[in-house]
## 1
Amino acid sequence: MLVKNESNSQHWYDQNGKPAYTIRGKNGKERNTTVRDAREHGYLPSVTTIIGLLDKPALTRWKMEQMLLASMTLPRLENESETDYIARVVEDSRSTGKDAMNRGTEMHDQLELFFSGVYMIEYPQFVLRTEKVITEFFGQQEWKSEESFAHNGYAGKCDLHADNIVIDFKTKTDSLDKATVYAEHMMQLAAYREGFGIPHARCAIVFVNDTETKVCEVAEDDLQKSYKKFTLLKEFFYIDKGL
């Protein structure tokens, strides 16, 4: 199922793969880059922006569950209108997601610094554990972190890649027992390896929380099929956005 992605989280790059997430408007103030800007400047959509057209059932279900839990724990105030109550429940349900997002961003930042070779007196334990798990799985590699690319009408940044390996980190706040590689994850990895010019690279999602790290490698057949799906979705994106 396709859904419209009108989020400000859309990311754009120039033809050389340089991020163009924001642009200076006519009023001189910096703002998020829009589709109209992309048409004008020839910017390329990111992998995640293209994949953002897809509905994500698991995420949708999680959001619905958070709203239901919020409604069960938030009593309706005296004389509170239905509209105000619903708005309060929705806002409360989002707080859990915001906390998880902020923690995920923090963890991603720490992993990026480590794999970029930035010296720190002491890294968090989850970073050192993740490096150990990845090395045990893939062997010693010369990793490149958060490098960008432009390729065949799209662009993006990858969390981690080596000469023949592509990795994307997914952070979680709960147990990794049920951590699942979804179709959009496979498409993301497949698009990255093509974008970096390593079309036969091994690809994996590495799930990380505060106490565990789990490497989930994606089968080659799934990657090839995922890239075909991504290519079709990219074509739809270009038609839908008038690019």
Note: Helices lie at 35-41, 47-51, 57-73, 82-115, 125-138, 183-195, 220-241.
## 2
Amino acid sequence: MKRDEVFLEKRQEIGDFDFGEKTAEVFDDMLDRSVPLYRELQRMTGEIGAEFAVDGTNVYDLGCSTGITLRTLCGSVPADVRFIGVDYSEAMLERARREFAERGITRPVDFVQADLNHGFPVTNASVVVLNLTLQFVRPLYRDLLVRSINAGLNENGCLILIEKVLGNDSLYNRLFIRFYYDMKKRNGYSETEIAQKREALENVLIPYRVDENVDLLRKNGFAHVDIFFKWYNFCGLVAVKSS
């Protein structure tokens, strides 16, 4: 796993964060060192996915990046399903295809390039995952995407939503962000790397509060929503569709 040094060197100008080839090369390390308890989150995603996956259906990872969550699901979901990974970045999809080939994973999987800002035609799904993805969809289009997911889920199918989130007031926001940056420092990131990545993400990653994400899910067809993971400014939600 190549080490993430994307923001190591001091830059005069910081452009918007992108998911191109340079990021794809180090993305697995970036997740390990930037997302709290990421390995446990993966394990929990696989555990929940296995509970809801149904034979003969599709299991989607929307914003699949290098395919790490799909690889988790392939190892944990016993059902006879087709896995579908969707991402906007061709560099990420190419890395995902290569990882699957090199690891000898033979379960049926399709990788699709698509912009989730336009929604996505989910069909015959028992499980859909949005792992740190919805926060990169423009707020104007999030209802459209969640509606399209709900429409394509079968009854009792689930959506697993993991997001960076805002606190309910500025006190908690400041506190949680400081704790988060302390975690990144413990994982080897410098002050320069943290500051430059924060600036690059400023207009790209737009988080909601937990209650805003819950409302988004409920108003777009999910009757049952609960929190399965919370670490300061990160949250995992599971939402189930029922008639």
Note: The two ends are 44 Å apart (CA to CA).
## 3
Amino acid sequence: MISRTRNAPPKASILLEALRGLGYTCASAIADIVDNSIAAHAKVITIQFVWAESKSRIEILDDGTGMDDQELEQAMRLGGKDPLTKRAAHDLGRFGMGLKTASLSQCRSLTVASLKSDCSILRWDLDVLASGDGRDWLLLEGASDEAMESVERLNGQESGTLVVWEKLDRIVTDGFTGQHFLELIDVVEQHLAMVFHRYLEDGGIRIRINGKSVAGWDPFLTDHPATQQSPIERLRVKGSQVEVQYFVLPHKDRLDEATCKKAGGPDGWTAQQGFYVYRGRRLLVSGSWLGLGHGLSWTKEEAHRLARVRIDLPNDMDEDWKIDIRKSTARPPVALRARLTSIAEQARRQARLVFAYRGSSTGRTSNQPIAPIWIADHTKSGTRYRISLEHPVIQQMFEEAGAMFPRLKSILRILEETVPVQRIWLDTAESRDAPQSGHLDANPADILAVMEPMFRNMVRLKGYTAEAAKDRLRRTEPFQSFPDLVDSLDASVNF
């Protein structure tokens, strides 16, 4: 039996007002427009923020292939593209909604002018739609008087597209000033530098904001010699290939001030840890553990702030990864979660070691274990920290203690029982960094004052050769952090 049907089209003004609440920020909305420019093979994308209080506007101009009148009308329709249709590898869109939803999330008037063989101009104006009965989807032809000044920027180009946002009611709100507009420009620049950094770094595109070129922000510090990176791992699922690689960034002690500040990214070191999901070299998700973990999802902790994992997706896996309209969320398929969790665990484990050791040796030299001064005993009732009685410095003290041996052991026990664990934890949480280890900044003479007697003792009393004694010191905390001082012992120690 054929069911009876009714035609129930949405009211244009009401639906468009509702779609404004999808959750775009100004920066993510502009990134969505830049996606269209890249898909149109643009090489130069120019963004202009024009401050004029309530009449302020934002313009995005590219030198891409442009659209004729029919193509522009299709682009201005909501749902003008089938998300299930196979797309070219360089196409960064999917739903056919981004141009409209991203733009109207920030403004009430969207004008698009595109030059191919001729220049075509179409406009959505929410106030015009609301002034009628709200049912008709009325696209306006031509631009407003203010926007026409911007359209003239297409003159002299062979092709290209201009997007103009006017009536910026979601940006220029009560109390919003020119200074806020300048701060917004900085936020947008940081976001675009992150999202499109791979295009910017290889020269695929150039982006300028109010005349200033945007430099790409590499989340992984791939050019720094102290950055650790795993081999690229290729995972196959449903006939498509996903590439995964983790990076452990250097501790800030290994970075100069400018590099350290830049590497923290738009949201800071702790917030930027996690997975970075790319599609077509375009960053979709930045700094998220994607709900992975064992039992409970991992949270962003200071100890793992140096761990970043890159995932590269082909654009035919949007459905599998649940990519949303805003291109800001992703959920890994069940078939990949176990392996992604394992890779992330390796990154987090290594990052924790680098963080804890402040960029010095993370526990091994020449494949031999480092002799630690402190040992952590993990029990059901908690973690207890004790001094290693096998440490060479401690052993030498015991050998030379004589009658003071019992008192010395008592002093070490008092130190163990009074380690200010809670204070250290609190200071770490508040400063968002590992507490400073005194020996790292110690005067070399102070280090040698401790190291030389040990070296003498091993060579003269224990029968070590000079080279064997130095090798032992290279594997002893904290001397493993000072290999040059260890190498100098032949010249500095008098027998």
Note: The CA atoms of residues 51 and 178 lie 7 Å apart.
